[in-house]
């Protein structure tokens, strides 16, 4: 199928075409660029919500509930689940698909599991690109589930309009994670598994921490949920929509979208550098030359960048 035809089929909701388009973007290279050149400019109308937190806190269960809420407005929903790469298969874990299973046959929901390839730990480089592509294809709601591990959380936040940070009641190991950066990126906090002991204490802990050093006027709400029993979901969805309204009514939407643009540029740059390094002959020649010490890595990097950018600069 030609790119234009694939895009047409995908925008009409053809699940197989959507899947093929995602694979194509994941592979990167010229075909992916051609797709993004079509879809990125017509995007920007949808909302991206990221759900992040430690493994097992209930992100997928909550995500499936949020999809229900998103569908209630009649919009199409795209779900991107970023799973840690298995060192054995290099692929995505199937569990999330199973938990999202009740949405699997719904033509209004597109679900994609993405393997992160080890890049900065938690989010696939293709994720923001696929999210942007889905927006361009007319998806009004995009939900990204990702395992928050350090640096990667910041990346999630950079590519989402609203970041929901999930912890489980009673904290456990999550206290460290919270200190390591959850607080800065959370637009909405969820204390899930509120059917367990310690939920009230966990909510209080978080509310207390929120008093310290926030730049934004937005004060993240802290919502207790029992995702497995669909409790607290209405409140969570309300909090997400309140945050959207706050963004829309303040300057923060443009600050965020600018930050996202910078992030997208950095991602595209990284992708194209990776591509020319791995795919081009000059890449492997330069690597050999560096190994033989006939050139230093910095000079080689300059050469590689110049050779890969030359056609783009000449482009009007
Ligand atoms: N007790 C309890 N268990 C939950 C709740 N939400 C999810 N779970 C369970 O916790 C486990 C992990 O959930 P999952 O959504 O896969 O977590 P994820 O790894 O963060 O995506 C599953 O067995 C869920 O059924 C909850 O509110 N209370
Ligand atoms: Mg999950």
Radius of gyration: 21 Å
Poorly predicted runs of 5 or more residues: 85-96, 118-122, 310-316
Structural class: alpha/beta
Helix coverage percent = 40-55%
**Ligands bound here?**
guanosine-5'-diphosphate, magnesium ion
Mean pLDDT: 82
Strand residue percentage: 5-15%
Number of DSSP strand runs: 7
Q: Terminal Cα separation, in Å?
A: 28 Å
Overall geometric form: globular
What is the number of helices? 13
The SSE string, one letter per element, is: HHHEHEHEHEHEHEHEHHHH
Major sheet attributes? 7 strands, parallel
| Biggest sheet: strand arrangement | 3-2-4-1-5-6-7
Looking at the chains present, what oligomeric state does this protein adopt? single chain
3D structure, described in words:
This protein is an alpha/beta fold and 316 residues long. The chain contains 13 helices and seven strands. A seven-stranded parallel sheet has the order 3-2-4-1-5-6-7, with helices on both faces. Strand 5, helix 8 and strand 6 form a beta-alpha-beta unit. Helix 1 crosses helix 2, helix 2 packs across helix 3 and helix 4 crosses helix 10. The two termini are 28 Å apart. The site of magnesium ion has 4 residues, from helix 4. The site of guanosine-5'-diphosphate has 15 residues, from helix 4.
Quick tags:
seven-stranded parallel β-sheet; disordered C terminus; 13 helices; binds guanosine-5'-diphosphate; 14% strand; single chain; binds magnesium ion; 316 residues; alpha/beta
């Amino acid at each position: 199928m030609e790119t234009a035809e694939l895009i047409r089929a995908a925008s009409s909701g053809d699940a197989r075409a959507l899947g093929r388009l995602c694979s194509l973007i994941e592979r990167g290279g010229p075909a992916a660029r051609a797709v993004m050149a079509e879809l990125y400019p017509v995007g920007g109308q949808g909302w991206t919500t990221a759900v992040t937190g430690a493994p097992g806190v209930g992100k997928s269960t909550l995500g499936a509930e949020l999809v229900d809420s998103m569908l209630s407005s009649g919009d199409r929903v795209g779900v991107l689940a970023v799973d840690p790469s298995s060192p054995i298969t290099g692929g995505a874990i199937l569990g999330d698909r199973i938990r999202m299973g009740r949405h699997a046959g719904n033509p209004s929901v597109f679900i994609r599991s993405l393997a992160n390839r080890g890049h900065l730990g938690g989010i696939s480089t293709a994720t923001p690109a696929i999210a942007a592509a889905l927006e361009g294809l007319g998806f009004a709601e995009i939900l990204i589930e990702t395992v928050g591990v350090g640096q990667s959380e910041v990346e999630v936040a950079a590519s989402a309009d609203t970041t929901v940070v999930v912890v489980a009641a009673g904290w456990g190991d999550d206290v460290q994670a919270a200190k390591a950066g959850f607080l800065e990126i959370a637009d909405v906090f969820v204390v899930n598994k509120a059917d367990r002991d310690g939920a009230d204490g966990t909510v209080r802990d978080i509310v207390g921490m929120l008093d310290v050093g926030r730049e934004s006027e937005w004060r993240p709400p802290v919502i207790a949920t029992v995702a497995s029993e669909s409790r607290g979901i209405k409140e969570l969805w309300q909090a997400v929509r309140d945050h959207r309204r706050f963004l829309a009514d303040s300057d923060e939407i443009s600050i965020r979208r600018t930050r996202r643009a910078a992030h997208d540029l950095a991602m595209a740059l990284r992708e194209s550098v990776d591509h020319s390094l791995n795919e081009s002959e000059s890449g492997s020649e330069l690597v050999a030359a560096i190994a033989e010490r006939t050139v230093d890595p910095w000079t080689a990097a300059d050469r590689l960048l110049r050779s890969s950018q030359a056609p783009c600069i000449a482009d009007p």
